Amino acid sequence: MRCPFCGSEDTQVKDSRPADDGAAIRRRRSCPSCGARFTTFERVTLRELTVVKSDQRRVPFDRDKLARSIRIALRKRPVDEDRIERIVNGIQRRLEAEGESEITSRAIGEMVMETLKELDQVAYVRFASVYRNFGEAGDFRAFLGSLDFGDGNKG
Ligand SMILES: [Zn+2]
């Protein structure tokens, strides 16, 4: 399993145990290269989903890729691995509940942004700026302006 932080191929399993009432295996891993610790879950895929990309290419839904992008957005934010795993599970269940075998990458991105916006605005901006791939600074400023930093905790 490649380290999601530094890309090293050489990560070690520290601990394995059942999760989700035996529906999954939870593995704690560590990366000797950068010192990162992360958790992986092995589970049965309930249904095969196809993602339709913006250029109309079709690729199989990749849960790990989804988890990776969320984990990168949340790096060094006060959100633990279990929480991240629940977020990914929640998004996957929503996708499965849509009842369609195909889903656009855009719809998935919007779902992730919606979730992160509730959870952590820093992670939300990180994810959104990559996902929306802002071509123009003006778009990005307009987007930042749409965020509500007016209330809630600042520290
Ligand atoms: Zn690493």
Automatic annotation (TrEMBL):
One of its GO terms (molecular function) is DNA binding. It comes from the Bacteria. A zinc finger (unnamed) spans 3-34. InterPro entries: ATP-cone_dom, NrdR-like_N, RNR_NrdR-like. Its cofactor is Zn(2+). The gene is nrdR. This is Transcriptional repressor NrdR. Binds 1 zinc ion.
